[in-house]
Every structure is written in C-alpha cells, then in structure tokens.
C-alpha cells in the first residue's frame, strides 16, 4: 500500500469521502462541537427520545452498539443524521426509519462482549457538508488516543486510550475486559467518551459500558471496531464502508502495566 506511513485505505468508493468533515479541520477538546463538525454522528430515537448514538458508515448503514437493541423491532427506531442539538430544529438533519437491525451473533449481554450492531435505513442519504460517513479502523489497527460525543448539544472531547492490560487491572473483579474491547479515559477522570490522521477521522470504538462517568481509574469501555472488519463486510456486501489501517506511533506504555490479574 503506497499511502502515507502507517495508514492503508481499503474499500475505495466510501473511503474517498469517509472521515473528512469539511467544516471541522481540527479537534477542539471538551467544548460544544461546531455544526457540521462530526457529520457521521447519528442520534437514534425510540419512543420519542434519544436512546443511543451511532455512526454513519455509508449511505445506507449505521454502526451502533448491540446493547441498544435488546428488544423491540427494527421499525421502532428512527435515526437523525446531521443533527446538532436535541432541543431545537436542525435545518441540516435528515430522518430515516430503520428496517433492519443486525446484532452480532455472539453478543453477550452479561459481559457486553461483541457489543456491536448494524442498522439498515429505509432509504439512502445524500452526502453533504453535514452528512458524511466515518472511516472505520481496519483489522490490525493500534490506537494510543480516542473520542466520541452526545448530550443535549453535540460535544467533543479528546481522551487517551487506556491499554487493555491497565484496563483489566482497573476493572479487576468488576468487569471482564476482552480483546474485543478498547478502553479510553484520563487517569484523573473528568473526561470520557476516532483518531485523526492526515485530516481523516477513523472510528476505533463503539461506546459500550463503564463504571460511573469519568471517574478516576474507571475508563470508558468501547467495542474495538478493528476486530469486526470481516463481520461488517459480511453483512454489508455492496458499497462497503471505508476501512483504514492505523498504527499509533510512540511507545506503548501498556506493556509495563501489571497487577495480580495481569502479571508483568
């Protein structure tokens, strides 16, 4: 692959536009996101209110978490793309009903392992400055830093990835952390919730679970997207999402993490 160092793009058609927000050239941590900053962010509604977030990954499919769809039918869910706030009218948003929900066949609701789902919309969306797909981390990607939004107004925050060895230590005896998961958060707490490379944003995790909210040494736990490239491509056989292999630079501090559960 002759692309820039540490990145390899696959699925050419979607990857030509994925992960490139025209109205947001850089991240601004911990404040309200400008309109159009995250054009792949999806608000999923059921029963008249927001229940979960998701990501637009091509013009017909949304990536989300399986724990959001444990019950009910696909048509119970509506998605809003291009939405900036849950409080006011959003001039740039579009609305779609969901016609199919595919939870991972090995999703375990007791451990939240394989907490990933695909949602098929009733019709395609047109890409605009406010509506675009995100790139997905390809198999073999490694990350040392991650972020994700949604309160009443779309927010953005930058938090570091916590290596799985340290994450296992932080949650020893509380949660099972598997290789299908990726953790992120500050040791001191205070922030919680894509990695940017050459102006492209790559989604590395899907929000899954955690203990409390932004507590010290209690990182958020996400489904590791790169573990599911084959699964996603097996379900979406046309206009497949854009996958990018990303390799973090620098030293992996997680190699030195140890505790009784994770020996040196």
Automatic annotation (TrEMBL):
Endpoints of the signal sequence: none
Gene Ontology biological-process entries: proteolysis
PROSITE patterns from the UniProt entry: TRYPSIN_DOM, TRYPSIN_HIS
UniProt domain Peptidase S1: residue ranges: 27-237
GO MF assignments: serine-type endopeptidase activity
Entry keyword set: Disulfide bond, Glycoprotein, Hydrolase, Protease, Serine protease, Signal
InterPro entries the UniProt entry points to: Peptidase_S1_PA, Peptidase_S1_PA_chymotrypsin, Peptidase_S1A, Trypsin_dom, TRYPSIN_HIS
Claim: Signal is one of the keywords in the record: yes
Record carries keyword Signal: yes
UniProt cross-references to Pfam families, sorted A to Z: Trypsin
PANTHER family registered for this protein in UniProt: CHYMOTRYPSIN-LIKE PROTEASE CTRL-1-RELATED, TRANSMEMBRANE PROTEASE SERINE
Protein name: Peptidase S1 domain-containing protein
Annotated source species: Neogobius melanostomus
